[in-house]
Design a protein that fits this description.
heterodimer, A: 6-stranded mixed β-sheet, 4-stranded antiparallel β-sheet, 32% helix, globular, B: 6-stranded mixed β-barrel, 27 helices, 24 strands
């Protein structure tokens, strides 16, 4: 489903190139539950945003369901992620000025779903996530767990092929976190591909596969591996730290 | 909250069911935009409520600008659409007349009585021709009575019945065909009907009307009301309250249809047949012009070189014709420009505010933008959303503007001397202009924020890395710069106008205008002229009356009246000199405290001044070509009464029309036939007592004539009315402009401070004092306002110099005016900044840091 080849991302100013991602190769199969782990600043979120087509890599190729994303223009990319990708964030990112109902409705509006269908989808989501009673409340009137529940509901309402979650439980207590992870598990079981970024081993244990990032390098699969030993996996010869 | 029911309805009707045709897809796109707008409308209103203060400033600024432009649109449309509402107005003309004789060239708007009949019977080419003739000698004060209701009417006409098929004067009661067929019939306007009949059906009832046909005495007769017509709209040059039948006039002036030399003004209107060229028609009038030329020459005893008629298109009269006998003062395109410009400036300031504050507020919307983009919103969607918001706010501002439009319009009408009402809003042209204004404003004000906002990258925003406050800083500064430049420009103009007004008002006029009570004799003038000495001495008996004088004119009144004076004892127009005339009595010069520079004032003791003496002013002496000393004793004959009189005195120049112009050359003459006003000098301590006694005396001499009076110093202010109107308007506009600019700056800074709270907190923790922080925050604005001053001052200087050219006596707008305007604006701007800066500098820095 996803195929990354040589994805590299850096921020450049006149004097320094600061690398965030270096030469990432990654394949994700449909229906997979993948966890990206790594310390702060390792490039996890950036990789997630690139997968979500919100950010562009500086170099490399990205195929999503066979389409060459790196060759698409912004409009096409927007269409693609509108159809197939849902996001969940650590700080929920609900729109404060909209009610729960309206928050759920917004992606459907952008996707131009017909009104009848849209209403039934929203009603369905409210039902499935047990938040019918909250539909007219504003995000500020909900607890963190409830907000994240709405956020997940909003992500899945478009029935995406892929859900991208950035520290989805980071702001929640452990019980709330667990509920959200169980939810992901269920969704995954029904065939949704999920990629999450997390610090938590416990969350990672829900997934099929874990990859590690360190300073922009990807360390293939093995949890115990040290970064130094995997220097070879990068095809570039340049030595770390770089910056010219 | 969103209204679900409305939504259901919308879905049921317009759901995108049938894809395929291009049209359908277009419709669908519009439909989605509409749905999206509905989704964002809620957010718009809620986020507005979150920043109420800034929202109010935005709307207030915009609403003020819109209201001002609405008024000006109404005004401009009114000015430019004069008389275009008459059907086929392109074929309707007024006939005007140009004459050239030794005295010079004269063009007048009126023609001769027989012309209309001649056109109708001998020339043809017209569908209709009709005359409008004002009451001959009392056009501006026709006394109309019904029982206890007595008023002087000013807009009375003798009308040919055919006028109804030329001009659009719709009948409410009665009909155009026979309303003015008989003598002593009257057609009145709806408001006149209310005034005299108060709800009674007016048709068939009678009004008593006093008219002066120049037959020696006024005639009072009953007229039957045979029709009621709509009130004349504000945009016609020919306004009417009463139309009297021409047959009435014909009964008293039987030669009306034959006498080509009768001189009272008569206005002739023609409606040409289709395809008749005005120039061709004018050619046909030539033989008649020739006949009149000969008639005039015979009557005047001197040759008239040329006389010709020309056609004035009806719709061009208001703006394009400014003849001496114009029915109402011509429109002045200068004021159309000035008012439009002023409204434009206010609109600019308001819109600038809107753009600025929206762009500033965008910092709070960045997260929303990020989220919407991750949810699949494209940049286009977001541009559309923010444009939609801007249109919504503009709409709110329009509604707010409508709310105080009527108030503003009343104020404007008083200031500009217009009579525009809200009904004019319904005109298609006005509606179209408002729609254009709405779209222009909504889109242009929203475009910049929309582009800024939609540019935010979701990644940076959502990772809290964004400092979107820096986006577009340059543009924002430019906008503030523009706002303050406009504000300073306006303040300078206002100051100069007011200083100039104070200057000319303070200058010695050469006569005394304090405590003067003016009585105008509008009815029974012949009685007054015969007995004025006795009447005057009766008024002098009243307590508190110090002096009394009668004259043809009092200060503040304009008059075209003049004498052509010929040196020696016979008159010929050939070498005569034209001087303005005031006919007076013996007491005029002392009553008004006018100073003599040579010779003497009129004296009763000399016995013969009434028959043998003129007095001129210094300008008059100059006009006659002599020094004040040399002019004394010279003899002159006037064209008016052909009497030869000796100049016995020269007064200092006095300015009866204020200090706008130099004193006009003037001759004072004791001549009964033109007397019409009485001046009474009051004792300031006994005004009410004196007034009661004066009223009593008035009743005795003029029974049945309404007692109307005014105080000279109040009325004299009118001579500067155009300048004062403009001053007031500028004052209003600049006040409003500064208020909006101040509020805008205040709001923007308040917001910037909120955004920089953390930075300020850190600086405080590092030891910065409140003052140093205030300085830090004000520095950038100081340079902006300074730059605005440098831009605005030269422009303002040029504009005011141009305006001052129109005055004979004028101030030199010096450094002080510009410095003051600049400093005042500067102080106001700085107070906005400092207030905020001090407040945020006083905050406890710990709070600021903890809130992160």
């Amino acid at each position: 489903m996803i195929r990354l080849r040589g994805i590299t991302k850096y921020y450049a100013n006149a004097f320094v190139k600061t690398f965030v991602l270096r030469n990432i190769d990654l394949d994700v199969k449909e229906g997979e539950f993948l966890t990206i782990m790594g310390p702060s600043g390792a490039g996890k979120s950036t990789l997630l945003y690139i997968l979500g087509m919100l950010d562009e890599a500086c170099e490399g190729e990205y195929f999503f369901c066979g389409q060459a994303v790196h060759e698409l223009n912004e409009k096409k990319r927007t269409q693609l992620h509108q159809q197939d990708i849902g996001f969940v964030f650590q700080s929920y990112h609900l729109i404060d000025e909209l009610t729960v109902y309206e928050n759920l409705e917004t992606p459907l509006l952008y996707k131009k779903v017909k009104p009848d269908e849209r209403k039934s989808l929203v009603a369905d989501a409210l039902d499935r996530f047990h938040i019918v009673a909250k539909k007219d409340l504003f995000p500020s009137q909900l607890s963190g767990g409830q907000q994240q529940l709405v956020a997940v509901a909003r992500a899945v309402i478009i029935q995406p092929k892929l859900i991208l979650a950035d520290e989805p439980t980071g702001n929640l207590n452990s019980q709330q976190g667990e509920e959200i992870m169980e939810l992901f598990k269920k969704l995954n079981a029904k065939g949704t591909t999920i990629i999450q970024v997390t610090h938590s081993e416990r969350n990672a244990s829900y997934s099929d596969r874990v990859i590690h990032l360190l300073d922009g390098w990807m360390i293939n699969g093995e949890k115990s591996a040290l970064p130094g030993e995997h220097r070879e996996s990068g095809k570039r010869k340049k030595k770390y730290p770089e910056g010219t | 909250m969103m209204n679900r029911e409305t939504e259901d309805l919308a879905n049921g009707r317009t759901g995108p069911r049938s894809p395929g045709s291009r049209l359908a897809s277009l419709g669908r796109r519009g439909y989605w935009k509409l749905l999206m707008l509905k989704n964002t409308l809620g957010i718009t209103l809620r986020s507005l409520m979150k920043n109420k203060g800034i929202f109010l400033i935005k709307v207030f600024g915009l609403a003020a600008g819109i209201a001002c432009s609405m008024v000006v649109i109404l005004y401009v449309v009114n000015e430019l659409t004069y008389d275009t509402y008459h059907p086929d107005h392109e074929r309707i003309f007024r006939i005007a007349c140009r004459r050239v004789h030794d005295g010079g060239e004269f063009t007048i708007a009126s023609t001769q009585g027989p012309l209309a009949a001649a056109i109708k019977e001998q020339i043809g080419q017209t569908e209709t021709v009709a005359r409008m003739i004002p009451p001959l000698e009392n056009a501006k004060h026709v006394l109309v009575t019904r029982g206890e209701r007595r008023f002087f009417e000013k807009r009375v006409w003798f009308a040919d019945p055919d006028i109804f098929s030329i001009l659009s004067i719709p009948f409410v009661e009665g009909n155009a065909r026979d309303a003015l067929a008989r003598p002593r019939t009257a057609v009145i306007s709806e408001s006149t009907a209310r005034k005299y009949f108060a709800g009674l059906p007016p048709l068939g009832r009678r009004l008593t009307i006093e008219l002066d046909y120049d037959t020696g005495a006024a005639v009072t007769e009953d007229f039957e009301v045979t029709g009621v017509v709509r009130d004349a709209p504000a945009n016609t040059h020919l306004k009417y309250d009463m139309l009297l039948s021409m047959a009435t006039l014909l009964a008293y002036v039987p030669t009306l249809n034959q006498d080509w030399g009768e001189y009272h003004p008569k206005y002739t209107y023609v409606k040409l047949r289709r395809h008749v060229k005005p120039s061709a028609f004018t050619k046909l009038l030539r033989p008649y012009a020739e006949r009149i030329r000969q008639a005039f020459a015979r009557r005047a005893g001197s040759p008239m070189h040329k006389l010709d008629f020309f056609l004035q298109p009806l719709a061009s009269l208001h703006m394009g014709s400014n003849l001496p006998d114009e029915i109402e003062p011509a429109g002045n395109i200068l004021y159309v420009y000035i008012y439009s410009f002023a409204a434009l400036l206010i609109l600019l300031i308001g819109a600038t505010n809107f753009v600025n504050l929206s762009a500033t507020l965008s910092t709070t919307r960045s997260r929303e933008v990020g989220i919407r983009k991750t949810l699949g919103g494209s940049r286009g969607d977001l541009v559309w959303q923010f444009l939609g918001e801007s249109l919504v706010i503009t709409l709110i501002a329009f509604l707010a503007a409508f709310a105080f439009l009527s108030l503003l319009l009343r104020f404007f009408n008083r200031m500009a001397g217009t009579a525009i009402d809200l009904q004019a809003l319904g005109q298609p042209l006005v509606l179209a202009m408002l729609l254009v204004l709405f779209l222009l404003l909504g889109i242009s004000a929203g475009l910049y924020p929309a582009l800024v906002l939609s540019r935010f990258q979701p990644v940076s925003v959502l990772k809290n890395q964004a400092t979107p406050g820096t986006i577009g800083h340059a543009v924002q500064r430019l906008l503030i710069l523009g706002q303050f430049a406009i504000a300073i420009f306006l303040v300078v103009c206002t100051l100069v106008v007011f200083r100039q007004l104070t200057f000319i008002k303070g200058k010695a006029l050469g006569f005394d205008r304090e405590q003067k009570l003016i009585l105008e004799i509008k009815s029974n003038q012949s009685y007054f002229r015969r007995n004025y000495e006795a009447i005057k001495s009766d008024f002098l008996k009243a307590p508190g009356i110090g002096a009394a004088s009668v004259s043809s004119l009092v200060p503040g009144e304009t008059s075209g009246g003049g004498y052509s004076l010929q040196k020696g004892s016979s008159f010929s127009i050939l070498n005569s000199k034209r001087l303005k005339v005031i006919t007076v009595d013996h007491d005029f010069i002392p009553t008004y405290g006018i100073r003599m520079t040579a010779g003497r004032a009129f004296q009763k003791a000399s016995g013969n001044d009434e028959q043998g003496a003129y007095i001129v002013n210094e300008a008059g002496a100059r006009e006659l070509g002599l020094t004040p000393e040399r002019v004394l004793g010279t003899q002159w004959t006037s064209h008016y009464h052909r009497k030869t009189k000796t100049i016995v005195g020269v007064t200092a120049d006095f300015h009866f029309l204020g200090m706008k112009d130099e004193a006009a050359p003037l001759v004072l003459d004791i001549e009964k036939s033109l007397l019409r006003v009485m001046t009474l000098s009051l004792d300031a301590r006994r005004v009410s007592q004196a007034l009661a006694a004066v009223k009593e005396t008035w009743r005795r001499h003029f029974p049945g004539v309404p007692f109307e009076y005014y105080f000279l110093d109040e009325a004299f202010g009118r001579v500067y009315q155009y300048e004062e109107r403009m001053g007031n308007l500028l004052g209003l506009v600049s006040g409003l402009g500064i208020a909006i600019a101040f509020l805008g700056l205040y709001g923007m800074i308040a917001f910037t401070m909120r955004m920089r709270r953390k930075e300020i907190g850190i600086r405080r923790v590092l030891g910065a004092t409140a003052t140093s922080i205030a300085l830090l925050l004000t520095r950038q604005f100081v340079s902006l306002v300074f730059l605005a001053g440098f831009l605005a001052v030269p422009l303002a200087w040029m504009a005011t110099i141009l305006w001052l050219q129109g005055f004979a006596y004028r101030i030199q707008p010096g450094f002080a005016v510009f410095a003051f305007a600049f400093l005042a604006t500067f102080a106001i701007a700085m107070s906005a900044v400092l207030l905020q800066a001090l407040r945020s500098a006083r905050d406890n820095p710990v709070d600021a840091l903890r809130s992160e």
